[in-house]
Structure formats: C-alpha cells, structure tokens
Specification:
The complex is a heterodimer of chains A (254) and B (271).
Chain A: H1 2-23, H2 35-47, H3 50-82, H4 84-99, H5 106-113, H6 117-141, H7 145-153, H8 158-169, H9 171-195, H10 204-213, H11 217-250
Chain B: H1 3-8, E1 16-27, E2 30-42, E3 47-51, H2 58-66, E4 73-78, E5 81-82, E6 90-93, H3 105-114, H4 121-134, H5 150-162, E7 168-172, H6 180-196, E8 200-205, H7 208-214, E9 217-222, E10 227-233, H8 245-261
Parallel strand pairs in B: 3-8, 3-9, 6-7, 7-8
Antiparallel strand pairs in B: 1-2, 1-4, 4-5, 9-10
Helix pairs in contact in B: 3-4, 3-5, 4-5, 7-8
The chains are: A mainly alpha (254), B alpha/beta (271).
C-alpha cells in the first residue's frame, strides 16, 4: 500500500499542475486542452462506442500481426542459430532490417497492397519478425554447451536434443524476445494506422490521425493515453507473469 | 522377477582399453598437442584417478572416453568393442552439475531414464527414487534445482549419471567447486556407492590427496604434449578416510613425483 502512495501522489500532482497551467491561459486551449476535457472526450467516445470499436480493431490487427510475426521469427531464429549458412545469409538480413524503423515499410506497403488490411498487417509483421528472430538466435547461442553434452551422454540426439534441451534452455531468452517483438509490433501498428487509411476498420491510430485533422487536441491526448494504457496492460497481464514464472523456475529471479 | 528388479541389478563393470590415443587442437596460438599416444588399460571395476596440471590433456582423454570428442588417432575399447560416440554405458559427472534448471530433481533423473527403452514410466520412477535414495536425497524429488546447495546439486547429478545403470562412470573434477566439508562427505558417499554398485571409474582431479583417497591407482599426467608420466597404485583397504595418514603418505609420494617431473604451475598442492 505504501508503495502505491507515491505514484498516486505523483500522477495526481501532475494532473493538478496541468489543470492549473491550462487555467492560467498561457496557451490556446486548442493546443493544450484541460485534463477535464480529455476525460470528457474519453467518456463521450467510450459511451458512443467509438473508442471500444477502435480498440477492438487495433488489438485484433496487433494480435494477428504479432502471432504471424512470431510464427515466422522464432523458427527462423532457431535456423540461424543452428546453421551457419543461415546465420551468414538470413542472420545478416535480419540484423539489417531490424535497424530499419518499421514506419519505413509504410510507403512500400501502400504501393504493394494499397489502403488495405494487408498493408497494416505487412508492416506489423515486418516490425515483429526480425526482433523475434534475433532474440531467439541469441537465446539459443547463449545456452551453456554443457547441457547439450550432458544430454548426449544420456543418449539424446538431434530432434530430441532440440525439443527437450535447447528449446527449454533458451526459453528465458525467447520470452524476452517475445516481449521485445510485442513492443516492435505495437509501434509498427501505430505507424501503419496513422498512415494507412482503410475503410475496413477504424483503429486507434486512425482516431489519433483524425484528431489531428480536426484539431481536436482532447481526442489526440485521450487516444494517446489509451495507447499507453494498452501497452502497460499487455506488459502486466501478458508478459510479466510469463517472465516471473520462467525466472522463478530457472532460479534467476532477483 | 519384475523388470524393475532386473533394471536395478548393477550392470557388470567393463574393461576399458585405450590404444595409442592422440589429439591435437588448433588454437589461435598454434596447435596444442593435448594427448600424445596414450595407451592405458583399466580393469573391470577399477577406480583410476588422473592428476596433473592444467592443460595436460586429462579432461580431453575423459571426453574421448565419453565419446564427446574423437581422437585424431587411436581407439578406446570397452570390453573389446571400439566406442563410436556418447552412450549410456559411459555416463559423465561434470565439474558443473549440468542439471537442467527447467526440470525438478525427479524430472532430471527421468530425462535420463526416459531415453532408456524397454521400461515403463512406473518402473522409471521407481528407479529414479532408488537412486535419489542412494545419494541421500529421497526427500528432494520435487525440489527445483536452484533451491539445492552445491553439494546437493552434485549428488543429484551423480544420481542422474547412475540412473541409466552405466558400466563406466567418468568424473571430471566433480568436487572442485565444493567446500571442503561437503567434499569429504562426498568422498565417503562415492566409496559407499562404489561398494554397492561397482563401476569402472575414471576420476579426473587437480587434488592429489583426493586422488590418493579414492583411487585404486593414480595416474600422473604431464603437459605439452599430454602424456602419462607416472603410475601409483594405492593398495589401501576401503573405506578410506581423507584425513588418514596412510592416504597422506600415498599423496605425498605422488606430490613428490609431480614436483620432480614438472614445474607445478596451476597445480593445487595437496589440500
């Protein structure tokens, strides 16, 4: 309880300072809306269903792209870790493309797929695959070789060694790779939604985009808050429990 | 008689013959001649200790016997048959326990046993519990690996190595990372277990006194190129006490030879 007190005071204080600054009339309310008007927007958009629908569309796109990205990235990571031929080819490509901010895929996606779901999906997948691949590759390579040697003396070979030793041994790295992949997927999707205006679904990024077009700063800030909240929730609900479970088992918890 | 009794009957120890084994490693600083034409014969159930300074090739020889490395020339024979790779008849106890942290104690033993065909899972569990009891950890079947002390981990690793009922046990400085008290307990345990379930044992160590306490025979290795420099039988009755004068006398004999033959760099003096 005591640990809750400080953050509550901090964030409460920040909101109060924000409100006071707005009341001081230094900036135009169009540029800096009051926290109350942001809350009002969230309430309104929540009540009429805009926000809920947009969140649903966004989260669906995110999960689809993320899962496809992992399904491609994780096996490829095992391949680059296992075969030097893959490391020297695919591994180099992955390293290069991982440094490319995924928003850079948007122009290409628009030309290839047009204003479609496929375009956003493509951008999200491109954001996820490479970081998942690199994290998995790193994980497999950091496994103490003694695990494999010990397994071999017990009669474990090839596929058995991969499934029963290398995969579980690299799990802590794969979990952090999945977490990193998630962060990249989330960023990619927002970039895609802001630039790709599609009629099949109206996501949070598009809500943000139209907030700007309409000079509705309360909408912009409100949607930004929702985006932050989704990120935090994903971390708390999806990844933190996984990480904790793995660390407890492996004995690496602090 | 059920399969489980059959399984728990000690497999007869094996005669181990090493014929002209040589091994060279290429490193950035040029080739290292780790083993030079080593020949050695170990009789069934013999406990042979290999001592020598770092880089004398004793661990390499152990890995070759385990089948984890291949010699450049020469062969290792178990009961006359050349070995071709790792096998359950030759289990290894490494310096680090090499237990799998994602499995609990029981599952670590089951990992080894599940790779053994012709057993059902009920029998495997009974075998695992038998060996956990043998190393005195019957109550820790469901502990996580990181919850165990260093000595307990090494006991679990020993139980896991014994579980497939190997005929040769290869130990690579298994107690080097443990504290002195734990180590002395393990000397007693290993002698008791060897009595109950005789194996042909190759034991690599830096510690001359440890070698004299455990071995029927102590082989002194010398580096560059790795070779056997001397051989010391230890005809003392068992069980032996690590602190006994007799053990100390045999250890000092080996130490003397060691100092005479080599500069003892990287060598732990008889602790």
């Amino acid at each position: 309880m005591k640990r809750m007190l400080l953050p509550t005071l901090l964030f409460g204080g920040l909101v109060v300072v924000w409100e006071l600054l707005v009341r001081a009339n230094i900036w135009s309310p169009v540029m800096v809306p009051s926290p109350l008007s942001v809350l009002e927007y969230l309430w309104r958009a929540g009540a009429d269903g805009t926000l809920g629908a947009a969140m649903l569309v966004t989260v669906r796109r995110l999960l689809l792209g993320y899962v496809i990205g992992l399904l491609i990235g994780l096996p490829l990571g095992f391949m680059t870790a296992r075969f030097n031929v893959c490391k020297d080819t695919l591994g180099v490509v992955a390293l290069g493309l991982q440094t490319l901010p995924s928003v850079c895929w948007v122009p290409l996606a628009l030309l290839w797929f047009g204003q479609t779901e496929a375009a956003t999906l493509f951008v999200v997948i491109m954001g996820t695959v490479w970081s998942a691949l690199i994290a998995t590759d790193h994980g497999v390579r950091t496994i103490p070789p003694i695990y494999v040697r010990a397994a071999m003396t017990m009669g474990s070979r090839r596929l058995h060694t991969w499934v029963k030793v290398i995969l579980p041994a690299s799990l802590p790295f794969i979990v952090s790779g999945m977490k990193q992949g998630w962060a990249f997927a989330w960023r990619s999707l927002m970039a895609a939604e802001i630039y790709v205006t599609i009629l099949t679904g109206f996501g949070l990024g598009q809500l943000l985009h139209y907030g700007r077009e309409l000079h509705a700063m309360d909408q912009v800030l409100g949607v930004m808050l929702i985006i932050i909240l989704i990120g935090l929730l994903a971390d708390r609900i999806l990844f933190s429990p996984c990480e904790r479970a793995v660390y407890r088992r492996w004995g690496t918890a602090k | 008689m059920t399969a489980i009794h059959e399984e728990l009957r000690p497999a007869p120890p094996v005669k181990l013959v090493i014929q002209g084994v040589s091994k060279t490693f290429a490193t950035r600083h040029g080739p290292i001649h780790a083993l030079d034409d080593i020949s050695l014969s170990v009789r069934e159930g013999e406990f042979v200790c290999m001592v020598g300074p770092s880089g004398c090739g004793k661990s390499t020889l152990l890995n070759i016997i385990a089948g984890l490395e291949t010699p450049d020339s020469g062969a290792v024979l178990t009961d006359g048959k050349p070995i071709t790779g790792p096998g359950r008849d030759r289990m290894v106890l490494f310096q680090e326990p090499a237990l799998f942290p994602w499995l609990d104690v029981m599952s670590n033993l089951m990992f080894a046993l599940k790779l053994k065909p012709n057993l059902n899972n009920q029998a495997r569990r009974e075998v695992a519990l038998y060996y956990l009891g043998l190393v005195g950890l019957g109550k820790f079947a469901h502990a996580h690996i990181h919850e165990l002390s260093g000595g307990m981990k090494q006991r679990v690793a020993l139980a896991r190595a014994l579980a497939p009922n190997p005929r040769v046990l290869l130990m690579d400085e298994p107690f080097a990372a443990l504290d002195a008290i734990t180590r002395e307990q393990l000397y007693d345990d290993i002698q008791r277990i060897q009595e109950e379930r005789p194996k042909t044992i190759i034991f690599v160590t830096h510690n001359v006194r440890e070698a004299a306490c455990l071995g029927d025979r102590v082989l002194l290795f010398a580096p560059r190129p790795g070779r056997i420099e001397g051989e010391f039988p230890v005809p003392l009755p068992r069980p032996r006490d690590f602190g006994s004068l007799e053990v100390a006398r045999h250890a000092s004999e080996v130490m003397h030879a060691l100092k005479h033959h080599l500069k003892p760099e990287g060598m732990e003096a008889a602790e």
